[in-house]
Amino acid sequence: MPLYFIGLGLGNEKDITINGLEAVKKCDLVYLENYTSVLNCDKSALEKFYNKKIILAGRNLVEDDENEIIENAKSKNVAFLVAGDPLAATTHIDLFLRAKKQGIKCHVIHNASIVSAVGITGLQVYKFGKTTSIPLENENIEAPYDALKSNLSLGLHTLFLLDLNPEEDKFMSVNDAIRYLLKIEIKKNEKVFSEKTLCIGCARIGSEKQVIKAGTARELLKFDFGKPAHCLIVPGKLHFMEEEALKILG
Q1: Could you give the CA distance from residue 13 to residue 34 in angstroms, rounded to a whole number?
Q2: Dist. CA 121–CA 212, nearest whole Å
Q3: pTM value?
Q4: Which of 43, 46, 59, 134 is nearest to 95 (CA)?
Q5: What is the pLDDT of residues 145-197, one digit of tens each?
Q6: Which CATH class, in words, describes the domain spanning 2-112?
Q7: Which of 189, 202, 181 is nearest to 134 (CA)?
């Protein structure tokens, strides 16, 4: 029996592709990954549109060695739904590989991802360097700051994905991310990030209520980006067309 990895895009229940919807409708079990990102709609909207009961899949369920999803896929048609693209996160690739190793036929149905959708900011996607995540628990975590430093040294833009924990209703905001970078800057005493650094704060990219705001770190700290999911971009060397786009966004 097949295991379908289906991307839901970045908006709401209607952003699923036709191929994805057809796959969902013929599945016996439908899981929704519920820890790396969130859609701009709730589970009930998905269930109504797909006419399927949906099982929320937290990190433990997806990453458990004795995996429920894989076991069920041995005898049933199973869908694993993911906000954005289904293989954008390492944890999903791990599930895909484990299923393949156990002889399960896997189908991947791609969709829009934040990695490509950031083009809406006016920044050229191919000029982004290493993408990095800032965890909610970030005491003594310096890897995101180091990634920014490395990207800037090459003139590349940096996309920060901001952590969330929907089960506990915890979501990192653009403001939290800026405060984190300023804290590490002070700790390391380097000239990488300051209150004068140009930033782009994004919220709910891909939805009708998306917010994109460009400005200095100090300016964005005062701005309320609203509901999740958020991400933060620190631009590197700007092309004149990118500069023009940011003037409009600011």
Answers
A1: 15
A2: 7
A3: 0.92
A4: 59
A5: 999 999 999 999 999 999 999 888 899 999 999 999 999 999 999 999 999 99
A6: alpha beta
A7: 181
Task: Report the 10 Å Cβ neighbour count for 215.
Answer: 17
CA distances from 71 to 1, 36, 95, 97, 104 (A): 11, 22, 12, 14, 10
Residue where the block lists tokens 């990954």: 33
Tokens of 73: 């896929």
Write down the domain spans for the chain. Answer: 2-112, 115-249
Integer angstrom CA distances of residue 10 from 1, 2, 40, 112, 233: 28, 25, 7, 7, 18
Provide the strand spans (E) within the chain.
2-7, 29-33, 55-57, 78-82, 105-109, 132-134, 158-162, 164-165, 170-171, 198-203, 211-216, 230-234
Q: Which fold has domain 115-249?
A: 3.30.950
